[in-house]
Amino acid sequence: MNKRKIAIVFGGKSSEHEVSLMSAASVIRAINKERYELVYIGITRDGEWRRLVLPEGMTASFAADVLEQSTWLNYTEAFNMSYIKKVADFALPIIHGPNCEDGKLQGFFETVGIPYGGCGVLASALAMDKLAAKDVFDKVGFPICKHRALFKYKYEEDRERAEQHVAEELGYPCFVKPANMGSSVGITKAHNKSEFFRACDLAFKYDKRLIIEEAINAREVEAAVLGNAHPEVAVLGEIVPHGEFYTYESKYDDDESVLVIPAKLSPEMTEEIRDIAVKAFQAIDGEGYARVDFFVGKDDGKIYLNEINTLPGFTKISMFPMLWEASGLSYPDTIERIIELGYERYNDQNNRQAML
Ligand SMILES: Nc1ncnc2c1ncn2[C@@H]1O[C@H](COP(=O)(O)OP(=O)(O)O)[C@@H](O)[C@H]1O
Ligand SMILES: [Mg+2]
């Protein structure tokens, strides 16, 4: 059997560049090399596409080492991105944040006509935009926390008024977030008016639209969804962050945040969360895989749907693959399943178009 050529697409013009290199290195180490031949396509912080070419005799594990040490630029050559179909059969984006996770890259794969792993354009764009996602969740009737939108031009017009609305409707503390971001970048928990202004100034560096949310005193529960038409969900996991909330530093730099798998929840609550996870994935037109994140109120036990991550962290110790591992699907098998699902979507789409 001819090996399928899988382009691992990593890096990216995003503040989650480093995180992507770690995930990509993990995937490269684990992927079944009997079945797949790898092509390494990196996107620099400046948005330039490069192909990582290994020195003579070097294997995939060398590529993984190079990414882990963030030295891949030394081994790359300029790459015209439209060549992707010439060098690969399938694109596997292991990349996060704006431009990568928000449907733009997925739109490029659609345009050149290469099958790819994970969610399509609509689901990626919706999930990445915290305001748009909350509107969909609300419409479908999923439980979400109280929130408000704040646009930059409004804030610049009258920030006192903007603050007043927040103080009256949501109260303090509140969470201030850029609508389009990930990995907690640009997010602040504001406890008072002056912190609110500082939080807005920071968040507006990343986006011109913000979401302001009531702060929930909550446990953080995550669900790993896998599938196309009939998505399945793994056992649930809980994150116990070290510190006031789950910040960028606690996600990647300190290992004191604890992952509890399976999450300690009643069977009823577990089933309810797993059910909402699948339905939320379907509501945004999810395909392939995603991690659906929840809050569970510590005081009232209420469930809140927080967000969907369509390209969740994918190192061996990341929540998504670990939840599947705990449900009986090994790390390499999870990767393989994501590739199969990408091919399935591609073939379905082409069959539908052929029938017109
Ligand atoms: N409304 C909220 N109430 C309590 N904690 C929150 C709230 N929103 C965010 N957080 C905390 O901030 C972290 C990051 O926020 P999140 O919405 O998940 O953004 P990101 O896309 O950056 O992961 C969460 O994991 C949680 O610890
Ligand atoms: Mg999150």
Q: Count all strands and give the number.
A: 15
Order of helices and strands: EHEEHEHEHHHEHHEEHEEEEHEHEEHH
Summarize the biggest pleated sheet: 6 strands, antiparallel
Average pLDDT, all residues:
93
- Continuous helix count: 13
Work out the count of structural domains.
3
Task: Categorize the overall geometry.
Answer: globular
Instruction: Give the CA-CA distance, first to last residue.
Output: 33 Å
Q: In angstroms, what is the radius of gyration?
A: 20 Å
Gross CATH architecture of the largest domain: 2-Layer Sandwich
**What are the segments in which pLDDT stays under 50 over at least 5 consecutive residues?**
none
Helix content: 25-40%
What hetero molecules are in the model? adenosine-5'-diphosphate, magnesium ion
CATH topology term of the largest domain:
D-amino Acid Aminotransferase, Chain A, domain 1
Q: Structural class of the secondary elements?
A: alpha+beta
The CATH superfamily of the largest domain is ATP-grasp fold, B domain
**Residue fraction in strands:** 15-25%
Describe the 3D structure:
The longest helix has 25 residues, at 331-355. The model has no long low-confidence stretch (mean pLDDT 93). It is globular, with a radius of gyration of 20 Å. The strands form 3 sheets. Strands 10, 11, 12, 13, 14 and 15 form a 6-stranded antiparallel β-sheet that branches. The chain has 13 helices and 15 strands. A hairpin with a 4-residue loop joins strand 10 and strand 11 (232-233). It folds into 3 domains: 4-116, Rossmann fold (3-Layer(aba) Sandwich), CATH 3.40.50; 126-143 and 217-344, ATP-grasp fold, B domain (D-amino Acid Aminotransferase, Chain A, domain 1, 2-Layer Sandwich), CATH 3.30.470; 147-214, 2-Layer Sandwich (Dna Ligase, domain 1). With 356 residues, the chain is an alpha+beta fold. The chain starts with a strand and ends with a helix.
